Amino acid sequence: MFTTRDRAEHTRKRKTVSHTFSAQSISHFEQHVDGNLKELVKQWNRLSDTEIAGGEDYADVDCLEWFNYVAFDIIGDLAFGAPFGMLPRGKDITEVRLTPDSPPSYAPAIKVINRRGEVFNTLGCYPPLKRFARYLPDPFFRDGLKAVNNLAGIAVASVKQRLEMQEKGIPQRDDILARLMEGKDENGNALGREELTAEALGHMIAGSDTTSNTSCALLYWCLRTPGVVERLQKEIDEAVPDDVDVPSFAAVKKLP
């Protein structure tokens, strides 16, 4: 919906995608979020065990980096049909295709989104500069515009793979992309490839660094504020069995 300023077109898209975010639809997405959170716990346990085995008392972890990985993998799982694989690799890397038929390449998605934001914010202050930005000698603009293409390429690669699966009759997962593919406007028309790609890309931009930054800020203030971690630990221990690493939403939604 954020890809158009035309009111009629916006209304059409809103009607097409609104069912995707109903309470019932969102509840079905929990399984994908749960799987990625379990992978995060697994990786942090691995880092901790490795350091302890080496004689250390604990592991130093860059939480923002790992929150970025888990946020991107969740968005990939929900909006593109599969995680980007950042969590198991412990690296910021994902497949890119500039067009549906171009050969794949690879780019750092987190870095791409950050650079895209920086250059777009700058060009937004002086829009006439946009048409000349690629010719400027400053790599800030050149690399920033390249990042924009790479970001779109991430969505192109993922949507291409998902549409090919649909054409082959392979059963679809229950996720955001599947709901977008099912959506119809009042005339019974589904979203086209370009619209699907734009919507999926919008989800990635809106839900990745916002989620990771918020998660990191929450953890920071929990650790900085005396008594919070202890109280939180007590509440979770009372509500969640010892053998459960990632509790369901139903198990924790009524915690104080």
Describe this structure in words.
The protein is mainly alpha-helical. It contains 12 helices and 2 strands, in the order αααααββααααααα. The chain has helices at 7-17, 23-28, 30-53, 63-80, 86-89, 109-125, 139-167, 176-182, 193-207, 209-224, 228-239, 249-252; strands at 94-96, 105-107. Strands 1-2 form a two-stranded antiparallel ribbon. A hairpin with an 8-residue loop joins strand 1 (94-96) and strand 2.
Layout of strands and helices, then pairs:
Blueprint: H1 7-17, H2 23-28, H3 30-53, H4 63-80, H5 86-89, E1 94-96, E2 105-107, H6 109-125, H7 139-167, H8 176-182, H9 193-207, H10 209-224, H11 228-239, H12 249-252
Antiparallel strand pairs: 1-2
Helix pairs in contact: 3-4, 4-9, 4-10, 6-7, 7-9
Oligomer: single chain
Structural class: mainly alpha
By DSSP, the count of extended strands is: 2
Mean pLDDT score: 82
Order of helices and strands: HHHHHEEHHHHHHH
Highlighted features:
mainly alpha, 256 residues, 64% helix, 2% strand
In short:
With 256 residues, the protein is an all-alpha fold. The protein has twelve helices and two strands.
